[in-house]
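testing teh design pipeline on a random one, pls ignore if ur not involved
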């Protein structure tokens, strides 16, 4: 977190970081996600000295979006991500499935 951040932003940073770590994200990546999210919120509310155009003109805040854009590339989630989800849901035969079969088994 940048120095001079408000206690609210510090709490927000910790909350986002802990949530990302609970979902299995590495500590380094969780810190990056939390910092980017909090910095974007600071820019949107005018708390930062500089801000990118996308930070201030995006119609939805990151909290409203709730990960809506994650894994939305041209092919969606990777095979490893699908496999991890199948493992959580205890789907039989997942180790021998290809990406298409994993999608089908997960109902995607």
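output:
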């Amino acid at each position: 977190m940048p120095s001079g951040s408000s206690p609210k932003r510090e709490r927000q940073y910790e909350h986002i970081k802990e949530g990302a770590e609970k979902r299995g994200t590495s500590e380094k990546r969780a810190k990056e996600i939390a910092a980017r999210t909090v910095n974007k919120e600071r820019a949107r509310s005018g708390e930062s000295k500089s801000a990118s155009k996308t930070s201030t003109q995006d119609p939805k805040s990151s909290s409203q979006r709730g990960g809506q854009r994650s894994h939305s590339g041209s092919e969606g989630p990777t095979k490893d991500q699908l496999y991890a989800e199948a493992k959580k849901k205890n789907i039989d035969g997942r180790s021998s499935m290809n990406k298409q079969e994993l999608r089908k088994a997960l109902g995607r």
